[in-house]
């Protein structure tokens, strides 16, 4: 254990070693400061300042190069245009990040004070600590020279303001915000349940106990974004003995004479729930083995899925065909969609 009132040379330092007597030796103090070239030569200092500013300016040029490639290189079917844009985006990002990074390092190594200091411990006094913290901030600003070096300050501000813009532009290419599209499907009141992929309507009499149908909404095959809508609207249709179902309050009319419909999209990561065990009335996702109990409104009984499969309310129209009573009452698919 060492004890010293300060770090000045010539003071006595006492060291206590377990099992040994106390040893005393003279505090060697801090090593002598070796001035840099910029500390001794005014011209070298100005040259280093211009170099730092040049690096920050290179960062600004890199950002501008990125936007030139992003906005002013039109993409068509030619590979050459694509390569040119990728080259400009890559070089622009590299110069933008390297310019500001290398500039800050060069600034610290050549212009900021590099002498070592020590200070004694003191008792914690909240008001004094606030004043000390304010003094430290002011000292940092003074020592960095940013107040008296407007060339570095202005180029740094320009580089720092422009550097994040390429990332924002890239995020823009992720596409428009989904809005409510993840919570809405093609299912609506009166939409018929049809076989996948033929699109043939299904009568209630076609569904026997123990059978399972892969179902899509009527008209799905005729729309342009068929695959996108199918990824949300595909349904499994099954029939059980009505006595085996245990609907919760408010869901008594969501099925018809033991016929129930549930989303085919697993609530884990969106894999298709494609296996139905007739004897146990379990639905199984073959990808990660999430298992849902049809008798308990597709409650998760095994696997990583976090919530039950959403149920599609159904009824029978005047012609005996199965139709939806409404859309799903909760988002389909992985649980993070619901939180999104």
From TrEMBL:
It comes from Arthrobacter burdickii. It is a multi-pass membrane protein. Pfam families: QcrA_N, Rieske. Belongs to the Rieske iron-sulfur protein family. It comes from the Bacteria. Its main location: membrane. Iron-sulfur subunit of the cytochrome bc1 complex, an essential component of the respiratory electron transport chain required for ATP synthesis. The bc1 complex catalyzes the oxidation of menaquinol and the reduction of cytochrome c in the respiratory chain. The bc1 complex operates through a Q-cycle mechanism that couples electron transfer to generation of the proton gradient that drives ATP synthesis. InterPro entries: QcrA_N (IPR045603), Rieske_2Fe-2S (IPR017941), Rieske_2Fe-2S_sf (IPR036922), Rieske_Fe-S_prot (IPR014349). The chain crosses the membrane at residues 52-75, 87-108, 151-171. PROSITE patterns: RIESKE. Coiled coil: none annotated. It is found in: Cell membrane. Residues 1-42 are annotated as: Disordered. This is Cytochrome bc1 complex Rieske iron-sulfur subunit. Keywords: 2Fe-2S, Cell membrane, Disulfide bond, Electron transport, Iron, Iron-sulfur, Membrane, Metal-binding, Oxidoreductase, Respiratory chain, Transmembrane, Transmembrane helix, Transport. Residues 254-323 form the Rieske domain. The keyword Metal-binding applies. Signal peptide: none annotated. Residues 1-15 have a biased composition (Polar residues).
């Amino acid at each position: 254990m060492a004890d010293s009132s300060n770090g000045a040379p010539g003071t006595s330092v006492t060291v206590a070693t377990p099992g040994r007597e106390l040893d005393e030796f003279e505090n060697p103090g801090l090593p002598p400061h070796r001035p840099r070239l910029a500390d001794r030569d005014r011209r070298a200092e100005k040259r280093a300042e211009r170099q730092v500013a040049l690096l920050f300016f290179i960062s600004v040029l890199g950002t501008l190069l990125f936007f030139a490639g992003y906005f002013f290189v039109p993409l068509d079917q030619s590979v050459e245009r694509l390569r040119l844009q990728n080259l400009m985006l890559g070089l622009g990002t590299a110069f933008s990040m390297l310019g500001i990074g290398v500039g800050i390092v060069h600034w610290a190594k050549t212009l900021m004070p590099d002498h070592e200091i020590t200070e004694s411990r003191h008792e914690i006094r909240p008001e004094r600590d606030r004043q000390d913290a304010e003094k430290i901030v002011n000292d940092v600003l003074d020592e960095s020279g940013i107040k008296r070096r407007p060339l570095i300050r202005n180029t740094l501000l320009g580089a720092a303001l422009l550097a994040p813009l390429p990332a924002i532009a890239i995020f823009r290419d992720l596409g428009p915000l989904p809005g409510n599209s993840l919570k809405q499907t093609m299912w609506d009141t009166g939409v018929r349940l049809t076989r996948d992929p033929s699109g043939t309507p299904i009568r209630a009499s076609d569904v026997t106990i123990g059978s399972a149908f892969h179902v899509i909404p009527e008209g799905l095959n005729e729309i342009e974004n068929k695959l996108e809508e199918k990824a949300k609207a595909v349904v499994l249709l099954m029939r059980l003995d009505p006595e085996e179902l245990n609907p919760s309050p408010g869901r008594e009319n969501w099925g018809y004479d033991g016929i129930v419909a549930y989303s085919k999209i697993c609530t884990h990561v969106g894999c298709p729930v494609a296996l139905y065990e007739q004897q146990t009335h379990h639905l199984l996702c073959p990808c990660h083995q999430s298992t849902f109990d049809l008798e308990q409104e597709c409650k998760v009984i095994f696997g990583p899925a976090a919530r039950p499969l959403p149920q599609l309310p159904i009824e029978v129209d005047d012609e005996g065909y199965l139709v939806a009573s409404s859309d799903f009452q909760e988002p389909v698919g992985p649980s993070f969609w619901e939180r999104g």
